[in-house]
Amino acid sequence: MKISTQIDQLITEYIVGIISEDDKLLLEQKLAEDPMLMAYYEQKKAVIGTPHTNPQLYQPTNFREQSILNKKATPRSYIPWAAAIAAMVVMVVGAYLWLQSDEKTSTSSTAVKSVELVLADGQRVNLSDVDTSGSLKGKSFQTQQKTLSYSTAGKPNYEQVSLVVPAGKDYTIILSDGSKIHLNAASRMHFPFTFQGNFREVQLEGEAYFEVAKDPKHPFIIHTPHQSVRVLGTAFNVNCYDPGKEVVALLHGSVMVSADSDTVRLSPGLASTTDEKGEIKTATFDSTDLLSWRQGIYEFYNTPLEKVMKNVPRLYGDSVIITNAIAAQKRISGYMDRNKPLNLFLEQLKATNAIQYTRKEGVYYLR
Questions:
Q1: What averages of pLDDT result for each successive group of 10 residues across the chain (367 residues)?
Q2: Is the dihedral of CA 336, 341, 346, 352 positive or negative?
Q3: Domain spanning 118-290: which CATH class is it, in words?
Q4: Helix, coil or strand: residue 204
Q5: Which among 165, 178, 259, 268 could disulfide-bond with 227, CB atoms 3.0 to 4.6 Å apart, if both were Cys?
Q6: Which 8-state DSSP code applies to residue 88?
Q7: Three-state DSSP class for 78?
Q8: What are the extents of the domains in the chain?
């Protein structure tokens, strides 16, 4: 019996548990009508089905796994089912084992650098994970639960400073106007201790989630390499890691995104993408996926391994080199948890025969 690549792919997705509702109904109807197809399904399920991947037996352990398994299938290029096993089973099984494992590993992937506040004169203030308080440039400040806040009392200080967040960490700052900004790993924000003039302006490199204090008389403006985002008071996310793809996603309120001669006003639920030519496009977005980084989670769906691994230096501060071109193009679905050691994630990939890896002089080599 000849099975079409589309039906074969749907069977794999059904077994793994990531099939969409529409595709599920279609497949179940075909299985009910075709005994030979049902026999093929049973044979394939016996090969790749496990208590953690069979949709009839597997129960997600938390909302993150549930959100991954609830992903709706989208148009894609189809691959042979043997490759699909490595491509899709790997992360669903891996995520389950990862969450259940208490295994201690000898290799830690925690970045050694600290979050720093860089002053105009070059002085660097280490904002360690330990809660503390003190005086800085005549202003009292405190750090608590990875958040920096400082007093605005007394004489205004307009000095420009930078908050630098290294790979493997994230940090929150409350500015002089009460705006709260959560910076992702490998990000930097340039801002004044005290805003002055008609605008509240900051510069961002990387990614941050903004909760801007309302002040209609003083618009808040975020400058990135290729665009400016103007707001009055709202909550939104700005991602400018990739200079050729800067994304602004609005949760509530209203923002104006400008790049060269193009300007777009976003309404809640819309995201804009600005390319390196300054062209802006808009689309809806999934806020759970987009903001998962705030919990240290990087989600991916049917994504080439090569693209997934490009996030490792930012999330962990480690370097990864893939030496096998075929392995680099394997597609995987799941998530990477920055709060877990990197080598534990790689062990899950290895356990499914998706990759082999070694570590030498601080660099992970995948093949």
A1: 68 72 83 82 64 32 39 36 34 30 32 79 83 74 88 82 93 94 95 93 96 92 94 90 90 91 91 91 89 88 89 89 89 85 85 82 89
A2: negative
A3: mainly beta
A4: strand
A5: 259
A6: I
A7: coil
A8: 5-95, 118-290, 297-366
